[in-house]
């Protein structure tokens, strides 16, 4: 076994040159080989390392942290070139042989010192070089010429005797060469234990005159030794590793760092600090009760077992029956618990169960008491420590650290998945790429590298992830914690984009920053582990020191402020219970929605904080505070907004505040107003009002508030101190939601109320048309609380205009337009009859039958004769008046019949009379109003002609029996009205035409004039509060029409076809917009409303054809169209005539 060696004087022929040498640009990972040896029924472990020097063949060497020399077996070969793994280097000095003894000095090596110019380290599994160091300044090595021992310690046949005067040998002892060792070397076999070609010393110490361990000569910062990895451990090393050169990320992996007992020198070549061989102090406890006190300890990877040179512990263990003998040393019985803890505040304990060396495995065999391998009160902890921990030798800082995590400095470029069978993993490299980092159930990882991966971080249930030192996962798209995230050891806190999951986040004194929040977290955030937390078995109990999971909390915990949470931007939702004592900060671009509980923390809000849960600490805000939850620690709004209710809802709601509510002078209490409720703050304490603003806000998507409404917006059990400075709202003002309402506040000792009153905005301010203005002015004259005006006060300008039009009764005025237009049908029938009596081609002679006495047309001749004629004609038309800025459009249809009798009179005059019946239906689009009229007409007419000049004239009077129906509906009001009343339409007309015969075509240019007077009597609607009383009204209009009538005759078989066409232009004079003068029966002043106007200019087209089937039978059909701006009318007439 290689333990500490006996200090002896020796010739040291190495030049101690502190020269520059090439070292790795980053931490280099060198695989170590785990080798199990079996000897005489014993089993024990070794660490090997594959090394080549001077670019020669690499071989396996024992890796020994208990040694300070690189010993290379070369033997006493007669070859001048030396072995393949160490060929002779011309010009390199080699010292005289000396003894390098181990243990009690009875065995060791005969060796000489020299130097090598470079060192290569290899991966034994792949055979590839993993690291090369240029040591041209001279790396000291020792060339082993023979394995030597005293006769009683030789393991084989003795060879030649070693001269007694050889330096380094114990005086009075005789030493012989071990022939078995040399024979193995001669046969090409590893001479040491069948595996090794020497020893790579890796101790962090240097004895006077020694070369010094290899790692210490190659690095100024330090190195890490570990063999605690699992077969699936991530990284480039495998289960065991030597990591050269320390980085901040590597140092941060070590939770326990024990200062050396002192720096006593420096390493050759590198100049790095070197310490004592037993340079750290550990406390040892057996079965949780028997202890040693601090013992200088050597962590020796070259020793298979554990040796504690403590006679005191031996005595205690023997007395307790824990040892098998009471000699100068004793092996502790297997199955006992040994706990070792570094002598430094907050050190992690490491516990093992003692093994049975006699049963085969020596790795955990514990020997206590005086022995030849250690001094009393010194400890030698062998390979077992490295099998359970990674060990850091920090030469730069003169400390030794240890951690149960398997540490890797490897980089991972495409994300990484950590599994439970990897064991606890310490990631000091960089995880990069677009994929994420996933910890599967039961896995454990500790990150100290500045990671750049952009995928998600997933911490599964029952898994644990720590981020410490300079470690960062800031670029990860989201961190989903369903297990545990621990940032207690981070340097200056952690920034992540977003947090999600249902696990726990342990902060310690660090603050977690959410830079681009978008998640929902239902777990907990705390400075300590939550009571009852179950962690993976691989996570030691004191992992979060000083935030201990199991130790009692210090007495000052309740008064100290630890880490907190900051939402820098984005929206984060917390639905669980969190109990950290640091502040919760919400930046201007941040939003925090709480549906769970925030215990102890003080919230500082500059963004948006929606509390739908419970806060127990005070909340200070300069941003926006909303929610329906409880502020159990009080609420202070200095210059921001507070509004009860959810931010995504316009519905008024309530929030609860305990202790004190302070609303500063620059604060705004935003009150959401509905029809029956408004926002309310219920305060179990005192309200302190410092002159802030009440902003009453109503929403178009919720029912409107009502005039005279009284809302309680704040109650305080301990009273209200102070008042608000002003009240503003979106109700009043021309562009407001409810411009006819305004708000104010009233105070009582323990409450504040919001009052809804009539604003100074007149209804007429909303009007845009004449009708709207008339109705609005009438409403302004009513009491604001009247049944009609009260609901209008709850409307905005746009809806108010709709209400004005609905109330206007416009249908009554537009009905008069329809009746004036319908008068054309009677006039046209009379003129058509008079033209037919004069035998003018193209005239319709009747739709039923015509008896002609005294004037018979035969063939193409018209024969006049004295007598009477009876006739009848039916008509029908459909018209549309387009809307104007003032009135809605109207659709109208009319139909009926006219019959009459006429006769020839003196001096060529033809006179007659007519009677008719018609029915008109009309409706106005957008006004929910319609009507009808039954029309009875009486009239007379006369015509004559002087050769080609014809004169036709007449007069009629129509009794109109009107009926209207309309619905008045707008937000907050609904009513239906109907009315029945009478009117009359009188007209007089004349037509003058001159006929031209143009071959087979007859043309008659004409002009006619008609005067129509339409009069309606007063009416009273039946319905509710919106019913109207209308005054009698009459309107006179004059029409002048100019155009040409064309007709022709053609023979088709035995029948004669007579096509005809009329085109003309019509212009109207007088009052073209009928009006009505009305008043609300509820008591308004009179107002005038205009209907849809008559068209002023229109084109007239009439096209028809008659067929003389026989001399007595005629049939005909015609179409009449009238077209003007926003006006069109189409009519059809059909005729059948029989001449007796």
UniProtKB/TrEMBL annotation:
<feature type="domain" description="Autotransporter">
    <location>
        <begin position="863"/>
        <end position="1140"/>
    </location>
</feature>
<dbReference type="InterPro" id="IPR036709">
    <property type="entry name" value="Autotransporte_beta_dom_sf"/>
</dbReference>
<feature type="signal peptide">
    <location>
        <begin position="1"/>
        <end position="19"/>
    </location>
</feature>
<protein>
    <recommendedName>
        <fullName>Autotransporter domain-containing protein</fullName>
    </recommendedName>
</protein>
<dbReference type="InterPro" id="IPR005546">
    <property type="entry name" value="Autotransporte_beta"/>
</dbReference>
<keyword id="KW-0732">Signal</keyword>
<dbReference type="Pfam" id="PF03797">
    <property type="entry name" value="Autotransporter"/>
</dbReference>
<dbReference type="InterPro" id="IPR006315">
    <property type="entry name" value="OM_autotransptr_brl_dom"/>
</dbReference>
<dbReference type="GO" id="GO:0019867">
    <property type="term" value="C:outer membrane"/>
</dbReference>
